[in-house]
Design goal:
Helices cover 23% and strands 16% of the residues. The chain has 332 residues and is of the alpha/beta class. It has two domains: 15-87 and 282-314, no CATH class; 90-280, Rossmann fold (3-Layer(aba) Sandwich), CATH 3.40.50. The strands form three sheets. Strands 8-7-9-10-11 form a five-stranded parallel β-sheet, with helices on both faces. Helix 3 packs across helix 7. The longest helix is centred in the last third of the chain and has 13 residues, at 249-261. The two termini are 37 Å apart. It is an enzyme of class 2 (transferase).
């Protein structure tokens, strides 16, 4: 990865420097969980930025009141591509040139380099795995209705469900560690070696929303089958995932079985690995992008306020799953 060209930004957790800082980054869920008291007076030249990886539904389940955030932030740092800074759990680095993609000015490019061919299907004896855990109330129902799709899919193909929502057990809660690495997770490594497909189904359908499961699964030698309201072709390299929203469950099962029987077709979903590496984002996301924005005079002088943050953030979210359809249609 390229080294950040900006060296004049300092990140601090010290509340004593709150009033003198050029910008304040609010991790939205922590503001409510920690009952953080906002400053009595606000520096008018200071930029307040709302940060979250999560969509409205999950924030509200964590005790966040979106209405109380109206008029609070000047800028946003979320998964929304129409916000000020896009915060995602990962990106992709081109192996030649170290450019970070996707971007708004670059297209996915295949170098078609000559490399030793590998059969990613070799030694795999199981078809589909899914990691699904219950929520804090012990329920497996999701806002996206992903479990409905999986139930229909299971009528046509075997799906091994790991976690509290399934009958298969594997590993512990290693992914809760701050130093978590997929390649050190015995459970994920088992899936990478034994399964041909893994379901990466989001629990919430919001435009642009994609969780760390996409980037984690793409690090493995398994094809992710994704389900969400994101434009995956803009986020992941070409032919790196299978979008379940483009199939009825029965048709998806037929396609997975086709790939299972044809190693050539199956291996086409790993061609992208010749050109790109998955880059995970740990700690404060995209700190360099934030520093770049703060060094932009126009960004600092433009007085912008999200007067109706609640309405803006809900835009593009689907309130529920249409039980009669498997196609994803967003409703504002």
């Amino acid at each position: 990865m390229d080294v950040c060209p900006y060296t004049n930004c300092q990140l601090t957790l010290s509340h004593s420097e709150l009033s003198s800082s050029d910008a304040v980054l609010f991790h939205i869920v922590d503001v409510f969980l920690e009952k953080f008291k906002l400053p009595a007076t606000r520096n008018p030249s200071q930029i307040w930025i709302g940060l979250t990886y999560e969509p409205p539904f999950i924030l509200e389940n964590s005790g966040v009141s979106l209405q109380k955030l109206n008029g609070l932030f000047n800028r946003t740092m979320t998964y929304r591509t129409d916000g000020d800074i896009v915060a995602r759990h990962g990106t992709f680095s081109k192996i030649t040139g170290n450019s970070i993609l996707p971007s708004y000015t670059s297209n996915w490019v295949n170098s078609h380099e000559t490399t030793k061919e590998r059969n990613y299907a070799a030694g795999k004896h199981h078809l589909v795995a899914w990691f699904a855990s219950a929520d804090s109330k012990g329920k497996c129902d999701s806002q996206s209705g992903r479990e409905i799709y999986v139930k229909e899919l299971q009528k046509h193909v075997k799906v091994d469900i790991y976690g509290s929502c399934g009958s298969f057990k594997c590993g512990g809660k290693k992914n809760m560690r701050n130093s978590y690495k997929v390649e050190e997770d015995d459970c994920f490594m088992m899936v990478s070696q034994d399964y041909k497909f893994v379901l990466a189904f989001e629990n919430t359908l919001c435009q642009d929303y994609v969780t760390e499961k996409l980037f984690n699964h793409l690090k493995l030698n398994v094809i992710p089958v994704v389900f969400g309201a994101n434009n995956y072709s803009a986020v992941a390299p070409p032919k790196s995932v299978i979008d379940a929203s483009e199939f009825e469950p029965e048709e998806l099962a037929k396609y997975l079985k086709l790939l299972d029987k044809n190693d050539t077709l199956y291996n086409e979903y790993f061609e992208w690995k010749k050109d790109y590496l998955v880059v995970s984002h740990d700690g404060v996301p995209l700190a360099c992008d934030l520093c770049a924005k703060l060094n932009n005079p126009e960004w600092k002088t433009e007085r912008k306020v999200y007067d109706d943050f609640d309405k803006w953030f809900r835009k593009g979210c689907k309130k529920g799953f249409d039980h009669d359809k498997t196609k994803i249609n967003l409703v504002n």
